[in-house]
TrEMBL record, chains A, B:
Domain of life, source organism: Bacteria
A biological-process GO annotation: D-serine catabolic process
Coiled-coil intervals, chain numbering: none
Residues annotated as domain Alanine racemase N-terminal: 19-235
UniProt cross-references to InterPro entries, sorted A to Z: Ala_racemase_N (IPR001608), D-amino_acid_metab_enzyme (IPR051466), D-ser_dehydrat-like_dom (IPR026956), D-ser_dehydrat-like_sf (IPR042208), PLP-binding_barrel (IPR029066)
Record domain D-serine dehydratase-like: where: 252-355
Family: Belongs to the DSD1 family.
GO molecular function term, any single one: D-serine ammonia-lyase activity
Protein name per UniProt: Alanine racemase
Keywords, in A-Z order: Lyase
Length: 376, 376
C-alpha cells in the first residue's frame, strides 16, 4: 500500500502495459494460427498510443464505433478504418470529407441508408452488411434475404459503394456460459459461412467477420472465418473474467481511488471513485450480490489481486463504497490509494478519458483528446 | 420531427433553459418562504453559464463534489464554495492553494482527517460534519457522539479549521415513496435539530443543512432547517419524476439521438445514443421493465412528451434500442433526431460534457471544460 506516484491525488486509471501487450500477443497469435485476419476494435482503449502497438503484430486495418473516433485515428495512417455502427444518414457530409483522406468502410443494416449513400457519396467507401444472428440489438436478421438483396442491389447503382462482406457482433455471448459461448460461436460462423457461400460467386472478394471478445477469447480456432474484430480483449475486465474469457490477472486497467473513510465496524471503505469514474455497469455475482468493481492493492510495479475478494458494493456519482473483509480493512489507511478492477473496461476508460501507465506516464484516450484527465 | 438545428448530426444534450429556470425559481421561492438559505449543489449541471442564473435568486454560496469542480467555479466569485465530499487527505496541498484564493468549506467524517487538516492547513477553511441518518453511504452515524466530539476537539487545536455545522444527504429518499420521503425528511430534520440544540451554545453560528432533491422537492416547508443544498432539481429526470419530485414536463434536458434504423415488425428504433451518452443508470418501471430513458419528439421550440410512453429498453456503449408503439414508429424516419429524457440527468450531463440550448447556443460543462462536445 505504498503510494507509487505521490503526484496522484485523485481517481486515476492505471494501465499495466505488459498485461495489455500480452493480451494482444495472445489474440494475434491465435488469429495467425487460424489464418484469420485480426481487425481489432478500438472502442475499448480509444488511444493512439495503444493503437500503435497493434502495428507490430501486423494489424493494418482497424475498427471504431463512430466517425469521430475514425477522425481521431486518422494520423496513424491505417490502410482502412471500419466504422462498426449502422451508418447515420446525418453524417454524410462528414463521411465524404473523411473518405477523401482515409480509406473508410461503413456498416449497413437497411436499404434506405444504402440508397442515401448511393445518391450522395462523393468518395468511394466500403461497406459491411451487419447481420443479426440472435443478439437482437442491431443488424439484418440472418434469414431476411429481402433486405440483404435490397442493400446489395441498391449499392450496385453506384461505383462509390464497394461491398466488403458480412459482419456479426454476437453480443449475446455476454450473458452466456463458456459452453453457450461456443454454441453461439458455431451458430455465428454457420450463418456467416452460409452467406459467404451464397454470395461468393457474385462478390469473390467478400469476407466474413465476427467481433465479440467472449467468442474470440474462448474459441481456440477461427478456421473458416476471414476476419475477427474483438476490442475488449486488450484490457479485459471483471465481466470477461466471469464469462471465462480471461483470468483476473489478465485485466490490464485498474482505477486508483483515494481512501477517504474507513468504517471498521461495518467492514466498509469509502473511496473517491464513483459512477463518473467507473461507469454504472454492474456485475451480478454468483451469490446474487451486485458488484461495481473488485478491490486490488496497488504496488510500485502494478497491483495485487486478493485471495479473498473485496468488492465495490455500491456507487453513486462520486462515491464508491467497498465491502472488505477484516484482513483488508487492517491493511489500508486513510489517504492511500486503493485499486479497483472495472466491471466494464470500455466504459471506465470512456469515463476517465485517459490513463497512466506503471512508469507514471500519461496515455491518451480519444474522449480526453490528449488533454489527459481534464480535471487534473 | 423537423430537425431544428441542421448542424446537429451526433448525439447532443439539449437544455431547455426555461424549464431549468422555472425549477430554480420554484425551489428558491420555497426556500425563501421558509427563511431557509438555498446553497445549491452544482454537481448536476457543472456549468458556469447555468451557475450564473442562481445569483439572480440571491444565491451567494454553492456546493460541489470535488476540489476540481471548486476550481472550475472559482472565477464566479462565490462567497463560499463547499466541497460536499469527505475530505481526501491526498489533496491537502491543492486545498491550501485553493483556499488562498477562495473561501472554502470541506466535509469531515472522521477525526484522523480533522487532525491532518489541523496539522497542515495554511489557510482557514470551514468544515461541516457529515451525518449519516440512515442512508448508510457516508457520514458519522447520528448516534456516534464519540466521533463527532473527536472531530470538534481535534479541530479546536487550530484556528485554521472553522466549524460551520452539520450536513446530511439523505440519499435513501431515492428508493422511497412520497410518504416515505416525508418520513425520511422528518427523521433527518430531527437528527439535525437534535445536534444543533446540543452544540448551539458552544458554536452559536452553526447551521444545519440537508441536501437531497427528493426531500427538498416533496417537502413544502423547510421550517427549522437553516440551509438546503439540492442539486438535481435544476434539471430533474425520470428517476425524480417516478419519485414524485417533479413531473416529466419539468425535466430540462433531453438527449437528441440520430435514428439509424427502424424495425417496424419489432416495434424498435435504433439510435446513436448509448451508455457513453446517457450513462448506464436504469429505472425499474412499475411493470418491472428496465428503462434507460423515455422517448420525446423534438420540435423547434423544445420537445413533446408522448401520451403513450416509449422507452429505451436496452443500451450498450454507443447503441440505444427504443421500444416504441406503432403510432410512434409511424411518425419517425431514418436520419432524424429523436429525444430521450434521461434516467439520471447528473450522470448524462457528465457523460456528455456540454449542452446545447434551444436557441442552438453551446452551454459549458466542467467535464468538457468549455471545449463543448469534444467529439464535434
Amino acid at each position: 500500500m505504498i503510494l507509487p506516484y505521490p503526484i496522484i491525488t485523485a481517481p486515476t486509471l492505471f494501465l499495466d502495459e505488459k498485461k495489455a501487450l500480452n493480451n494482444l500477443k495472445k489474440m494475434s497469435e491465435k488469429a495467425k494460427k487460424s489464418h484469420t485476419r485480426l481487425v481489432p476494435h478500438f472502442k475499448t482503449h480509444q488511444s493512439r498510443h495503444i493503437g500503435e502497438w497493434y502495428k507490430e503484430y501486423g494489424v493494418t486495418e482497424i475498427t471504431v464505433s463512430s466517425i469521430y473516433a475514425a477522425e481521431y485515428f486518422l494520423p496513424q495512417l491505417w490502410e482502412n478504418i471500419h466504422i462498426a455502427f449502422p451508418f447515420n444518414p446525418l453524417e454524410i457530409t462528414k463521411l465524404n470529407r473523411l473518405a477523401a483522406e482515409q480509406s473508410i468502410s461503413v456498416q449497413l443494416v437497411n436499404a434506405a441508408t444504402a440508397g442515401l449513400l448511393a445518391d450522395n457519396l462523393l468518395q468511394q467507401v466500403g461497406y459491411f452488411i451487419e447481420i443479426d444472428a440472435g443478439y437482437g440489438r442491431t443488424g439484418v436478421e440472418v434469414s431476411d434475404f429481402g433486405t440483404i438483396e435490397a442493400i446489395l442491389r441498391t449499392s450496385l447503382k453506384t461505383n462509390k459503394l464497394k461491398f466488403r462482406g458480412f459482419y456479426i457482433h454476437a453480443g449475446h455471448t455476454y450473458h452466456s456460459s463458456p459452453e453457450e459461448i461456443q454454441a453461439i460461436y458455431h451458430q455465428t460462423t454457420s450463418a456467416l459461412t452460409m452467406l459467404k457461400d451464397k454470395y461468393n460467386s457474385e462478390f469473390p472478394d467478400l469476407v466474413i467477420r465476427l467481433g465479440d471478445t467472449p467468442s474470440c477469447s474462448i474459441q481456440q480456432d477461427f478456421a473458416g472465418i476471414d476476419e475477427v474484430g474483438p476490442g475488449n480483449f486488450i484490457f479485459y475486465d471483471l465481466t470477461q473474467a466471469a464469462l471465462g474469457s480471461c483470468t483476473k490477472e489478465d485485466i490490464a486497467v485498474a482505477l486508483a481511488a483515494p481512501i477517504v473513510d474507513i468504517k471498521k465496524h461495518k467492514n466498509e471503505i469509502l473511496v473517491h471513485g464513483g459512477g463518473v469514474h467507473l461507469s454504472k455497469d454492474v456485475l451480478i455475482l454468483p451469490n446474487g450480490q451486485k458488484s461495481y468493481g473488485e478491490v486490488v492493492f496497488i504496488h510500485e510495479d502494478g497491483w495485487e489481486i486478493l485471495e479473498e475478494p473485496a468488492i465495490v458494493k455500491s456507487i453513486s456519482q462520486e462515491h464508491g463504497v467497498l465491502q472488505a473483509p477484516k484482513a483488508i480493512i487492517d491493511r489500508v489507511h486513510l489517504g492511500e490509494l486503493i485499486g479497483i478492477l472495472p466491471v466494464h473496461s470500455c466504459m471506465t476508460a470512456d469515463c476517465m478519458g485517459g490513463y497512466m501507465n506503471l512508469k507514471g506516464e500519461k496515455v491518451d484516450h480519444f474522449k480526453g483528446q490528449n488533454s489527459f484527465y481534464r480535471n487534473l
